[in-house]
Design a protein that fits this description.
Elements lengths: L7 H10 L3 E6 L2 E5 L6 E6 L5 E6 L5 E5 L2 E10 L5 E7 L25 E2 L2 E2 L2 E6 L13 E2 L8 E3 L8 E7 L5 E13 L2 E9 L2 E9 L6 H7 L11 E12 L3 E8 L8 E12 L1
Antiparallel strand pairs: 1-2, 3-4, 4-5, 5-6, 6-7, 8-9, 10-19, 11-12, 12-19, 13-18, 14-17, 14-19, 15-16, 15-18
């Protein structure tokens, strides 16, 4: 039996919606309630017959669906530590003409899904290696830090010389555009040798480096800083970035050098390897 505390005009709305109770609290808000543990559904339909359904669920949850497919849902979940957190699940496309602010984590369930800004598809972070805790997947596992710094990187003094280190990335959407960013460190006696980066064995970036390009070597020593290995000044965090398209769902990144010297005389390392896809 439907109960109502509103006038005849709104009783008709209540009958159409199948609600147990409708309460008009003020001119800007309509409160729809039902018996405990039962759902309330509101169907909004336009003149073309297209409709969406708002359904309230238990525990302050709700969902919005179209043609029986969920578009947007909200629920409160409890994690293993019994800390209440909130999440909103979106199946489909979420559009906003206003600022979109997220207090918490924003997850994209599948990498084939995209974020657009002003009709432009945005880059998504696919993988990130800072080597502080993990170096999984890399063909070489040697890590280093310099001086009293707590920053850890792959390679370094007496570790990487004339070698190539690789990592395979899997699970990309087909025909993705990929942007690679990383920092490379140059240590000690480089005298014009090349550092390079490859994708599936094809060189995408290369850079010649020498530790001193001045007439007087002492000038370089006075102006530079030696952080690792020998007293020769080093170059930290030289930025590398390049973009390519991969037709398959995987690729192999390789970073190396053509150094012929002992790795204790000249060496290199990489850090903060980022893979973005679009």
């Amino acid at each position: 039996m439907i109960k109502s505390n509103c006038n005849q005009k709104y009783q008709k709305i209540a009958l159409l919606l199948g609600l147990c109770f409708i309460n008009i609290t003020n001119s800007n808000k309509i409160l729809l309630t039902n018996e405990e543990a039962k759902t309330v559904q509101i169907e909004l339909k336009n003149h073309n017959g297209n409709s969406v359904v708002l359904e309230t669920l238990q525990d302050n949850a709700f969902s919005v669906s179209k043609d029986n497919e969920t578009i947007l849902s909200y629920s409160q979940i409890e994690n293993q530590n019994e800390i209440d957190t909130s999440k909103i699940d979106v199946a489909g496309t979420l559009n906003s003409n206003y600022d979109f602010k997220v207090d918490g984590d924003l997850h994209i369930v599948q990498m084939s899904n995209s974020i657009f800004y002003k009709s432009q598809k945005q880059w998504k972070l696919f993988s990130f290696d800072d080597f502080q805790y993990d170096k999984q997947g890399w063909s070489e596992q040697a890590i280093s830090s310099c001086g009293s710094s707590e920053n850890i990187f792959l390679g370094g003094h007496c570790n990487f010389g004339g070698i190539i280190v690789t990592k395979e990335y899997k699970g990309l959407p087909p025909n993705s555009f990929v942007n690679i960013k990383f920092n490379i460190h140059f240590f000690d006696d480089w005298t014009g040798e090349l550092a390079f980066a490859q994708i599936n064995g094809i060189t995408m970036w290369q850079q010649s480096y020498q530790w001193c390009n001045k007439v007087l070597i002492q000038q370089c020593k006075n102006q530079g800083i030696s952080a690792c290995g020998k007293e020769t000044p080093d170059t930290f965090a030289y930025p590398v970035s390049f973009t390519f398209q991969v037709k398959e769902t995987f690729f192999i990144l390789g970073v190396g050098s053509n150094l012929s010297k002992n790795s204790c005389d000249a060496s290199w390392g990489i850090d903060d390897v980022q893979v973005y896809i679009n």
